[in-house]
């Protein structure tokens, strides 16, 4: 057996498709991998917070965390892909450049609900309300430009 960067393997045995993808995307520098992990954790937290707060969209932050974990940690990336909620979203976007219909509906409803509540009860200025509406409509439009 010859020791390689991804574990023990004989030189004759080919890499599986998953190992080839991981090997191609994982950052070579250890310090850069830590940066990717940190960015992945931050974007994951922002995505989770975005579920219940206005302005922060969930889907882009979850997709960003999947991208960062793919370059920073095989273990975290595998966890994201195997996650009950995040995995299907990331796989659909990564493999087919699509956002599942249920995710689009959920994102649209959450944006509409949280922005409406914030505009009605929190924000007193009309200009800010109009700005929020423009951002919300822009995010919803962008999400719906992807195929189901």
From TrEMBL:
Signal peptide from the UniProt entry: none
Q: Which UniProt keywords apply?
A: Membrane, Transmembrane, Transmembrane helix
Residues annotated as transmembrane: 34-56, 103-121
InterPro entries hit by this protein: DUF454
Q: Does the keyword Ubl conjugation apply?
A: no
Output a single Gene Ontology CC term carried by this record. Answer: plasma membrane
Which PANTHER family does the protein's record reference?
A: INNER MEMBRANE PROTEIN YBAN
Record's protein name: DUF454 domain-containing protein
From the broadest rank down, the organism's phylogenetic lineage runs:
Bacteria, Pseudomonadati, Spirochaetota, Spirochaetia, Leptospirales
């Amino acid at each position: 057996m010859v020791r390689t960067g991804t574990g023990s393997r004989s030189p004759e045995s080919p890499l599986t498709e998953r190992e080839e993808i991981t090997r191609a995307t994982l950052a070579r520098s250890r310090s850069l991998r830590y940066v990717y992990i940190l960015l992945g954790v931050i974007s994951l937290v922002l995505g989770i917070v975005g579920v219940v707060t206005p302005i922060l969209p969930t889907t882009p932050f979850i997709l960003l965390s999947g991208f960062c974990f793919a370059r920073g940690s095989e273990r975290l990336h595998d966890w994201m892909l195997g996650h009950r909620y995040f995995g299907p979203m990331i796989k659909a976007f990564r493999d087919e450049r699509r956002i599942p219909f249920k995710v689009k509906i959920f994102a649209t409803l959450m944006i509409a609900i949280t922005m409406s509540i914030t505009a009605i009860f929190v924000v007193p200025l009309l200009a800010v309300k109009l700005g929020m509406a423009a951002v919300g409509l822009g995010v919803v439009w962008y999400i719906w430009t992807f195929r189901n």
